[in-house]
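Sequence design from tokenized structure. All designs in this work follow the same two-part layout: the structure record, then the generated sequence. An example of the structure record is given first.
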């Protein structure tokens, strides 16, 4: 038997088109299937990555919220456990130290004066009230009790009806209009005025002209006058409407501090007006130096 050359197909062999086409289609379908699987797999991976990203962001937010809650809880706990102590007011010092303090503030108000000149207007220690028996807060909501317990003579006089117009027994000096309004309300307490007590004058420049206060004082019997240094000073030094004939006490609101943490004497303008136009008003200074008027630091 002779060996055949090439392949073993007959020379007249024709490939079956159906078989050939079927094989190609199988191959194409296989490729398409792989491509679709690849696309689906890529979509799933992207979706999974997005989900993981969202889960991670959510977890981070949750942790931040938990940390913030822990921080606030610690802050509350510290606020509850740490005892808040009110700084001791300068007004709580004994009279001899208050006298030194007042003298130092007075020197700031009159920087050009010599020591001898300052001595002529110095307020004596004997005219400065010793309020060391008062150990509670020096806030306005304690003012009534402070007067009743520490200044009994003033309490008695405030409960009596005034005999003269515009002649208070008490001058209460505060640094701002809002503080004046609050102090006025407190001094109207019935425990001080009782049934016969005189009115409480509210004296500050905001909303009120000087002429209006002059008119009011000349027709009104008042037991207390509460005001800012500027307005009380003007009434004392530039008008005859505010009389000191019945005056026994001047209370300076030195413990209060404003939003900028400044006291009455920390504000140069207010400090100067207190010493130049109120405590320095001739008749007030005379009353202080003669012991007829008492200076009280609250």
């Amino acid at each position: 038997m002779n060996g055949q050359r090439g392949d073993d197909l007959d020379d007249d062999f024709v490939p079956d088109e159906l078989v050939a086409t079927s094989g190609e289609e199988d191959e194409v379908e296989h490729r398409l299937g792989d491509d679709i699987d690849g696309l689906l797999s890529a979509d799933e991976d992207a979706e999974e990555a997005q989900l993981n990203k969202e889960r991670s962001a959510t977890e981070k937010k949750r942790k931040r919220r938990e940390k913030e809650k822990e921080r606030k809880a610690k802050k509350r706990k510290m606020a509850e456990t740490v005892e808040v102590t009110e700084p001791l007011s300068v007004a709580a010092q004994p009279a001899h130290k208050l006298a030194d303090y007042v003298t130092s503030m007075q020197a700031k108000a009159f920087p050009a004066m010599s020591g001898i000149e300052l001595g002529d207007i110095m307020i004596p220690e004997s005219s400065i009230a010793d309020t060391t028996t008062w150990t509670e807060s020096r806030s306005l909501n304690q003012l009534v009790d402070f007067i009743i317990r520490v200044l009994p003579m003033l309490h008695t006089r405030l409960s009596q009806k005034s005999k003269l117009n515009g002649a208070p027994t008490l001058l209460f000096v505060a640094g701002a209009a809002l503080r004046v309004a609050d102090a006025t309300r407190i001094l109207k307490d019935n425990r001080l005025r009782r049934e016969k007590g005189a009115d409480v004058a509210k004296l500050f420049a905001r909303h009120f002209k000087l002429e209006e206060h002059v008119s009011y004082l000349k027709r009104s019997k008042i037991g207390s006058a509460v005001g800012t240094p500027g307005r009380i000073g003007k009434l004392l030094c530039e008008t005859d409407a505010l009389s000191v004939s019945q005056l026994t006490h001047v209370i300076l609101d030195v413990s209060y501090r404003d939003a900028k943490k400044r006291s009455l004497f920390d504000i140069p303008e207010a400090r100067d007006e207190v010493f130049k136009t109120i405590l320095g008003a001739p008749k007030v200074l005379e009353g202080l130096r003669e012991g007829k008027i008492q200076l009280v630091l609250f």
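DSSP finds eleven helices and five strands in the chain. We note this feature because it recurs in several other targets discussed in the main text.
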